[in-house]
Amino acid sequence: MSASALLEVRDLSAHYGRVHALKPTSLLVNEGEIVTILGPNGAGKTTLLRAMLRLTPSTGQVFFKGKDITGLSTHRRAEEGIIMVQEGRGLFGQMSVRENLTLGAYTQPSGTMSMDDRLDKVFALFPRLKERINQIAGSLSGGEQQMVAVGRALMAEPKLLILDEPSLGLAPRVATEIIETLGALNRKGLGILLVEQKAPLALKLAKRVYVLSLGRIAAELPATDIKSHHDLAQYYLH
Amino acid sequence: MITLTQLIQSLVTGVGVGLIYGLVGIGFCVIYNASGIVNFAQGVFVMLGGMICHAILSKFGMPMLLAALLSIPIVAISGILIEVLVVRPMWNRGAALFAIILATLATQIMIERITILTLGDQPRSFPEFTLGGPLKIGDIAIGYQYFWIMGCGALMVGLLWLFFTRTTMGRALRACSQNRESAALLGIPVSRMLMVSFALSAALGAVAGILVTPTQFTAYNVGTPFGVNGFIAAIIGGFGNAAGALAGGILLGILQALAIVIFGAGFKNVAALTVLLLVLFIFPSGIFAGLKGKSH
Ligand SMILES: Nc1ncnc2c1ncn2[C@@H]1O[C@H](COP(=O)(O)OP(=O)(O)O)[C@@H](O)[C@H]1O
Ligand SMILES: [Mg+2]
């Protein structure tokens, strides 16, 4: 394992009953790197992420910052600094934006920074959330909900941020805004693992791309090799 | 026919008893929200609250307040024991929810037997918190204990509200009830929250048991009626909705009190079950279910 490896997944494999949704899969995210997993609907992207966070039972190994975390439960992995924004955002829909964000800082010791300062850091990225702070999260627009989801994840001061199709169902302009924010975070050194179905947006950011198809990694490419959707078509048609 | 005096008396006692049902009902909700489990051992906490408080009072002659403050954590620990010894082993092995629910029912029976063996099967009571009374206004006479029930019941509800909205642990519990996976992904130890919910529910039951015992009696088997009425309160309230359970409990208490004066004491449970059936016919998900604004 290289010294700068942030997350390393070895031979992760998961079944739903008799369906082998994730064949043994290995991947690597280095410190400060932004890596994208692309793949068509049903390829096993969500299954891979769920297995990585131990939301879904799996076999294989997961290392984080050189430490074997295979035996750790989901919440202990979060304590280690791996924070995931789930597909569908996973907000606490009946709680206010403030409560959602505040819960994001659950793992953070209260002594180090005041909650208001933590919130201000999120508002700096998503100013719109400041106006919505007392609104019930479930009543926000899709784009605003995704901002809450990303903001909540950032409240945890992640070392690795994992996002499962954050642009899903969003207007292109909003999706772009969120992806650009992720780019800015990465430039400040945050490791990001981004799962997307649609290539163009994700490819703007990524340096390295895994293409997932039929439950296995079909290709690992530098993003520059994928100039258009066209180059990916072979993996999407099956 | 019912007189105005009887009406007012039954309203007051009904609200008092209803608050007790409400506390038990909230206990059901707290565990259900954290886990999806309906804890049929809920009534046992009411029984243990009264029985343990009585034992402390009679064995050590402590002041009421001290005995109550000692009993509550003891019962809370019994709740933790149920979670650790019965629920968690099944939960961790992926047992079906209905199997776990059945196990809580078995636990209720076991605890009742243990109570008979250790404390005996005789009913017992302890004095009202404030001696004297009843309070008389004209023809209306209301035992002081009902004011204690109302005051302490309201206090508990206020404390619960503060706990769930102002503390990290309370918010984390609510987070688990809305989305357990998201909670875990933020580092909230979901299984420990289940333990917290059992402790909290047990403490609520204990408070209910201690408050209500002076108005009647307690014995190894009072858990079932309180459990059933608390369960009905929670269903009226839209299961899982704590405020609804409280309102449902008060409604149930008032209706029972009215049924007793109008039709006689034998109709208390008939009234409760009639209310339950009517509510389920007309509002299949509880009268107050809409207020919670369920997201799924
Ligand atoms: N809970 C589940 N039970 C059974 N099969 C599932 C479940 N979740 C996903 N699958 C199946 O596993 C495969 C991969 O799904 P998923 O990981 O959600 O793909 P993606 O996120 O790439 O769209 C699909 O064939 C899907 O139907
Ligand atoms: Mg998916």
What's the topology here?
The complex is a heterodimer of chains A (238) and B (296).
Chain A: E1 5-16, E2 19-30, E3 34-38, H1 45-52, E4 59-64, E5 67-68, H2 74-80, E6 82-85, H3 97-104, H4 115-125, H5 128-131, H6 142-155, E7 160-164, H7 172-187, E8 191-196, H8 199-205, E9 208-213, E10 216-222, H9 229-236
Parallel strand pairs in A: 3-8, 3-9, 6-7, 7-8
Antiparallel strand pairs in A: 1-2, 1-4, 4-5, 9-10
Helix pairs in contact in A: 3-6, 4-6
Chain B: H1 4-35, H2 42-60, H3 64-92, H4 97-119, E1 135-137, E2 140-142, H5 144-166, H6 168-178, H7 180-185, H8 190-212, H9 223-236, H10 242-263, H11 268-282, H12 289-292
Antiparallel strand pairs in B: 1-2
Helix pairs in contact in B: 1-5, 1-6, 1-8, 1-9, 1-10, 2-3, 2-4, 2-8, 2-9, 3-4, 3-8, 5-6, 5-8, 6-8, 9-10, 9-11, 10-11
Bound molecules: adenosine-5'-diphosphate (ADP) and magnesium ion.
Q: Low-confidence stretches of chain A at least 5 residues in length (pLDDT < 50)? A: none
- CATH classification, class level of one domain in chain A: Alpha Beta
Largest sheet: number of strands, sense, barrel closure of chain B = 2 strands, antiparallel
Straight-line distance between termini of chain A? 33 Å
Helix content of chain B: over 70%
Secondary-structure element order of chain A, as H and E?
EEEHEEHEHHHHEHEHEEH
CATH topology of one domain in chain A: Rossmann fold
